[in-house]
Specification:
The protein is mainly β and 268 residues long. It has a domain of 106 residues: Trypsin-like serine proteases (Thrombin, subunit H). It is 4% helix and 32% strand. It has 2 helices and 15 strands. The strands form 2 sheets. Strands 10-11-12-15-14-13 form a 6-stranded antiparallel barrel. The chain has a 6-stranded antiparallel β-barrel with strand order 4-5-6-9-8-7. The radius of gyration is 17 Å and the shape is globular. Keywords: Disulfide bond, Hydrolase, Protease, Serine protease, Signal. GO terms for molecular function: serine-type endopeptidase activity.
Length: 268
Amino acid sequence: SVYVHMYTKGLICAEAPFNHNVHNERVIGGHDAKPNTWRWQISLQMDSYNDGSYYHLCGGTLIDSFFIMTAAHCILSQYRVVVGEYNLYEYDGSEQFIRVEKIDVHPQWTGDLAKGNDIAIMKLANPVYDNGYVAVADLPAPQQMLPHDFICYITGWGLMDYSGSVPAVLQVAPINVVEHSVCSQPEWWGSIALRSMVCAGGDGIISGCQGDSGGPLSCYTDGAWRVHGVVSYGPSGMCNQVTKPTVFTRVSFFLEWIFSVSSNTIDP
């Protein structure tokens, strides 16, 4: 198994790529999502041993028929993207498996989660087609910040508990936004909670965990479901700790860069 942990100040570990013995790596405190609901959620999968068996590594969001948004810390090597995924261990008939052609990591990503910019855009070799099981995500307004306790939803195939249980089926959980003025307090995440991040959770019950990285924080704002965050980090050790919410890259702060990269559909 490949374990990748990134620590900063001993506290954070990336909800990061690593494999258990099973062919996958949940949202903690969540439940099975209804099939065909969170249609912009994708599974980022890697063939670690070049033997044709793929492992779920991270989540991501479909933002265009050719482009996927994920976390920079998820970027390790060659991937395939699976859209329309629901049960990782079964062929549902709704999936599309697409090769990644090009990856743009944010130019200010340093590998240090505390410095932010944990975002990357992947260009697909072929466009996703609308088979009724996929949808391009709507994004928030520029610089938009959500109010304290606003309820969003986290989805993913990450760990379900500290003992390392992994789900077959996509998990979902309601998770409350913790506004920056609270999340940046010393007993919360302190100075490593930047305005370019969204904090959510921290109740000790619901959180993201390993394998959820790169996946969406979906919030119903301005009349539509919009992806406001990309799962970035959480506490090392147990994922669902009080006053240590899951931290997301705040999509509304990166729109200009996202559009500049994803508008380049045809390579020069």
